[in-house]
Amino acid sequence: TQMRSIVQNMPKAELHIHIEGSLEPELIFALAQRNGVKLAYQSVEELRAAYAFTNLQSFLDIYYAGASVLLKEQDFYDMTMAYLQRAKADHVRHAEIFFDPQTHTARGVPMADVINGIHRAATEGPISAKLILCFLRHLSEEDALATLEAALPFREQFIGVGLDSSEVGHPPEKFARVFARARDLGLHLVAHAGEEGPPAYIETAVDLLKVERVDHGVRCLEDPALTRRLAALRMPLTVCPLSNTKLRVFDQMKDHNLLDLLDAGLVAMVNSDDPAYFGGYMNDNFVAVFDALPLGLAHAHQLARNSFEASFLPAQEKQKYL
Ligand code: ES4
Ligand code: ZN
Q: Binding residues for Zn(2+), per the UniProt record (predicted)?
């Protein structure tokens, strides 16, 4: 349809993409072969068949297994370059890319290889791209602090820190000290909150971690006072529609609250999260929400505009897109 080609062709920024979540099964098998890593699956088809998730944890288990094939700097480069080329095809002009160093350093991969590989692709790639280092919230704050210190020789290669992995039982306040340290270092701050966790986690991410964006944040609507406050702050919410339906945050796309978020005046936009696992890249997410919800041209433009407003692009760069 006409709406479909408009949302596909419009310039957009992607602010919520886990680079390890862009590893397609074909690349997982190719890297496993290249590195002599043994997988628990016999074929691409068998691996894809295991992508039947019931919640966040059931996904994370498979996502960490997939990432086990990443051993060399070139592996991180190849994964990132494949994502950037795919994003360009969806008219993504700028991407702020999450990576999970602890997933790799825990397997003995040097921090240098993780960051240099991703960063080299980000500088050589076909679109603008910046990196955000994420801490795994199921691990301790001490582990996060040690990870930040280990990344400091590469301080100029990432622009911010984030918080991801298993949300419930690991509230933002568990990471107050490491976020304070990142803030002192002049890093941008974001955190996943209100995906599976309650609205109270969004509140502590904002008030205690002092995040500049909330990743997901869709459960904010359960708390009307919080919703009004996030709107007044123009606190961006990096919403991921296909992720939310695959992980059963919403049963079906027609149940997704994206339109309610926009109607509440929130700075929400569309992102892919883990495109290789959730059934699609940016435009697949746009098409899915526009097919399921009563969204029109004004919403399309608002979502694209919000993606650039919420980005960490320098003011002068940002202006060009607003
Ligand atoms: C993630 Cl969807 C999601 N939520 C939390 N952590 C993650 N890491 C990768 N994808
Ligand atoms: Zn995410």
A: 16, 18, 192, 273
Domain that holds residue 111: 2-319
Block residue for tokens 């995906």: 195
Enter the ipTM: 0.96
Can 24 be counted among the known catalytic residues? no
| Region 224-228 average pLDDT | 99
Over range 115-121, report the average pLDDT. 99
Give percent of the chain with pLDDT exceeding 70. 100
At which residue do the structure tokens 């000290």 appear?
177
Altogether, the residues listed in the chain come to a count of 322
Tally the C-alpha atoms within 13 A of residue 226's C-alpha that lie toward its C-beta: 22
The catalytic residue among 20, 96, 195, 203 is 195
In the numeric block, the tokens 């991921």 are attached to 240
Q: How far is the CA of 147 from the centre of ligand 2 (A)?
A: 19
Among 198, 206, 143, CA closest to 173: 206
Asked if residue 87 has pLDDT above 90, the reply is yes
Q: Whose CA is nearest to atom 8 of ligand 1?
A: 165
Instruction: Please name the residue that has the structure tokens 């582990």.
Output: 143
**CA 243 to ligand 1: nearest atom:** 2
Whose alpha carbon is nearest atom 6 of ligand 1? 165
> Which residues are 134's β-sheet partners?
162
Instruction: Output phi, psi for 115, to 5 deg.
Output: -70, -45
Domain total of the chain: 1
- Mean pLDDT in residue range 74-86: 99
Whole-number pLDDT of residue 17: 99
Sequence-distant (6+) residues with CB within 8 A of 255 are: none
Predicted pLDDT at 38: 96
